[in-house]
Amino acid sequence: MTASNGKKKKKYIDCKTEYHKRRPYYNSNVSQSDLVSSKSDKRTYAPNNPICHLLTPVRLHRRNKHRYIASQSKRRAKKTDTENIVNNNIAIEVKNITKTFGSIVANNDVTMDIRKGEILAVLGENGSGKTTLMNMLAGIYYPDSGTIYVDGEEKVIASPKDAFACGIGMIHQHFKLVDVFTATENIVLGIGCKYNLKAAKKRIVEMSERYGFDIDPDKKVYDMAVSEKQTVEIVKALYRGANILILDEPTAFLDFPSKIETLQMLRRLAHEQHKSILLSTHDVELALQLSDRLWLMEESRFSIGTPKELAADGSLSRFINRDGIRFNKDSLRIEIK
User: Fold this and answer.
1) CA distance 278 to 117
2) At what angle do helices 226-239 and 256-267 cross, to 10 degrees?
3) Which residues of the chain fall below pLDDT 70?
4) Whole-number pLDDT of residue 289
């Protein structure tokens, strides 16, 4: 091929295009009405044919194909600046999650998000699906439908190992500790085949000083109080790199002084260390005092917002008010009559 200036012009040929120029279509069952003419090279191909994507001409040199594919991927993944700012503040997002057990629907089309550095308290009656949702985030259950996003990326969480890989750690209501092991041995248990207990103990002491924990690495679990066991579980999650902590009924078995310590510890983790904390509780006063946002789970409705927002629209009063119990929306306090 020669250009008008007399120089020889290079001819770029795509092997696939040349092949299909010779074979416009190879389905003998395609009717003439299904055939259309391609404007690019006047070829005939069948768009309704399952193999029509193979017959579509691709005007790319083979050396530039990978560049084209990469540019298309970047274009699809590109987001607006506003979306990026919003997503950068969201640690984990759940969209349209549904989970059933036989004929029982535990979670139905649930959508929510947890922001970075905040405490989100979940309030709900028994059977409202709080623990089921948390178990799906922790990889214990797998959702029937819906998607989970961590730091703006869609994730498949099919096991606790997947959850830890996403930076999610769960502290269960009933602790998962071995009574005859020390705190250090429980914390490193399951990380690998070989354990350097001396190095692990040193790291645990450093973490305790940084986060303000009071923990004895050499103490056996059977000698610990309930609050100490809970601290070991939290350190266990942080040791594995968790940035999102899920706590199921964290104050259920604690006395009043231990509850105050737990409140202070969770506030430090969220507001000073920028950890995201999701907790479910039946203790309404604890949720009101501790949380940055509340999520009310009822049988047929979900409400989420700050305590003041939910008090203003009447959601908290509707949720809390029972015989002899009233919620004061001005002081955000529960009154017993």
Assistant:
1) 11
2) 20
3) 1-87, 299-301, 318-337
4) 82
Q: What is the mean pLDDT of the chain?
A: 76
Task: Provide the pairing of β-strand 119-124 with 104-115.
Answer: unpaired
User: Among 174, 199, 108, 195, which residue's Cα sits nearest to residue 145?
Assistant: 108
pLDDT of residue 262: 85
pLDDT of residue 282: 79
Of 40, 34, 79, 76, nearest in space to 60 by CA: 40
Instruction: At 47, list the tokens.
Output: 């768009």
| The predicted structure's pLDDT at residue 13 | 46
Residue among 312, 306, 272 nearest 292 (CA): 306
Return the percent helix, strand and coil in the chain, to nearest 5.
40, 25, 40
* 333-336 vs 36-37, strand pairing mode: unpaired
In this predicted structure, what is the pLDDT of residue 137?
94
On the CB side of 170, CA atoms within 13 Å amount to: 23
Predicted local distance difference test score (pLDDT) of residue 36: 45
The predicted structure's pLDDT at residue 251: 83
Give the list of residues 6+ apart from residue 43 with CB closer than 8 angstroms, or none: 20, 21, 24, 37, 55, 57
- pTM of the prediction? 0.69
* C-alpha span between 286 and 303 (Å, rounded): 18
* Residues in the chain, overall count: 337
Q: Are 266 and 277 in contact (CB under 8 A)?
A: yes
Distance of CA 182 to the CA centre of its chain: 31
Q: Measured on CA atoms in the order 70, 44, 26, 15, is the torsion positive or negative?
A: negative
The three-class DSSP label of residue 226 is helix
